[in-house]
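Components:
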Amino acid sequence: MTNSIAEIRDADCIFITGSNTAESHPVISYEVVRAAKRGANVIIVDPRRVPLVDNATLFLQIKPGSDIYIFLAIMHIIIREGWADEQFIAARTEGYDEFREVVKAYTPEMASLKSGVPVEQIEEAARIYATGERVDGRSIYDEPRGHSTILYAMGITQRSNGTDMVETLANLAMLSGQVGKPSTGVNPLRGQANVQGACDLGCLVDVYPGYQAVTDDAKRAKIAEAWGVESLPGEVGLTIVEAMRAVHDGKVHAMYVMGENPMMSDPNTTHVEAAIRMLDFLVVQDIFLNETGQLAHLLLPAASSLEKYGTFTNTERRVQLLQPILKSPGEAWPDWKITAEIAAHFDAAMGIDRGDPNYWRYKNTAQIFAELTEVTPIYAGMDYDRLEEFGLQWPCPTPEHPGTPILHTKGFSRGLGKFHPVEARDPAEQADEEYPLILTTGRVLYHYHTGTQTRRSAPLDWVEPRGYVEINAVDAAAIQLEDGQAVVIKSRRGEVRTKAQISKDVPPGTIFLAFHWREAPANMLTQDFALDPVAKIPEYKVTAVRIENPRAKLLQKRAAQEQTP
Ligand SMILES: Nc1nc2c(c(=O)[nH]1)N[C@H]1C(S)=C(S)[C@@H](COP(=O)(O)OP(=O)(O)OC[C@H]3O[C@@H](n4cnc5c(=O)[nH]c(N)nc54)[C@H](O)[C@@H]3O)O[C@H]1N2
Ligand SMILES: Nc1nc2c(c(=O)[nH]1)N[C@H]1C(S)=C(S)[C@@H](COP(=O)(O)OP(=O)(O)OC[C@H]3O[C@@H](n4cnc5c(=O)[nH]c(N)nc54)[C@H](O)[C@@H]3O)O[C@H]1N2
Ligand SMILES: [Mo]
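Structure:
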């Protein structure tokens, strides 16, 4: 996030897209509700009528994948109406002229045709966002324009043009001067408790800790020196979906899966399962036996986050200290200890001498953190003592630095903010005669991802015991489907049978299935062929499908039999 969570409550306008905030980020959604109750405008752009729409002043219900046209049209209108922040653009950005030329073609009328949203709503959203208007018209800031903030999540990124989408939202914020000030900015709501920290510290295929490119020779040499090794690999690695493909191509033969359940969370499960079964060696390190672990050659029991020390970095870049409140069961160890032990055994088996008998023998996680801060400039000024009370928000470059609640207040990381001339692109799969509906996937409040953890919790399971698909009454009627009946969903990859929930929250032509349910696994249907070219993320949010009513077929057969004399 460019800004901090607590700032949301002081925004004049909150623009939310591709985020089911109330169910996926309930604590953050309270900040939105708080702001709304104080008179902020809340604009939501989403194909589903998510629960937070109850608190919104404007809801743009789009067809999945059509949002890019809405955003481009909003910027078209902002420029046309003279709402752009010319001063900010001149002082802080570059590439504006080229960007403005591209946006010219994307009229609100075109966006309306593509998305199904009325032109007036798009114009209203443009005005409210750009000028930071409150419901009563007055900003709480004594400035020419009010403060607007953008919140987004997976509805934007889990797309074959996810990077384009994020750049577009950054364009929108710069165009309106809505960045670098309190309660503004571009704020991705990060999902897992420590996904931000994992990325910060180099758990990505193309960077070392602190987002230092693996291809940067000078930075790599510096890290190698700090780690006491001669050299470090400089090739970009494979992302998950690419790794599964590489198994099929005979290029990857072993996998070490730690805290991940690809048998349910990766797209196109049939392809994933085939890849996993082809592996010569699969190690799964997990706190539970999940679907992937069931196919493993070796299981390594890990300690859960309630049972270990370490740090978690949350979505507002706040590094927080983790302390155990439970004892680990059985032979479970903290992940770092298992991994370090494997590394030490590897060195011994290969006859590698690191010149230090304690090389892999960390005494505690504080020691590991100290080593990490040495090679991670944005964490350089942190240590366990400083994190104790409230944690610290990166960048925190020196021991005296107080941390950074708001990014880009004076300049951007690269100096001037760059306008990316993004053109609209449609999702890889479109509805057609054979597969006339669009399936979008995501989450429900009571379950977490593949259910490994939450479906073990009896109270959570009582509330949402089984999977279901949300279908609009129009689409259900077309196949004589009634609420609660079984329905079969088919895509080009596979099929899933689940229960139908007739719902007004999804528009005709769109259905929604969460990916929590092992008895109705959504990723049997999703595709893995079209990845975002930069982020390599699959398009979990848009899949062409059709629905069938197994009971209708039976009834037809029976009716036919009854007619036979
Ligand atoms: N209860 C619960 N909370 C969670 C999780 C969980 O499993 N359960 N998981 C955590 C994790 S890791 C993550 S990443 C986050 C995810 O948090 P979210 O991204 O908020 O959750 P999703 O359910 O994936 O919903 C994304 C939203 O995008 C919308 N959407 C679908 N298609 C489109 C489209 O084409 N355009 C736009 N603009 N929107 C679209 C959906 O309707 C939905 O409202 O949640 C985190 N929090
Ligand atoms: N169709 C569809 N698919 C999706 C998505 C979608 O919206 N739609 N969302 C995607 C997103 S955003 C995400 S984040 C992924 C999530 O996908 P996964 O990360 O594969 O899903 P989880 O169920 O969270 O699996 C995490 C595993 O880690 C284990 N675990 C928990 N704590 C620890 C620990 O401390 N140590 C170890 N070693 N293991 C631990 C859990 O028991 C569990 O088995 O799914 C992706 N897949
Ligand atoms: Mo996620």
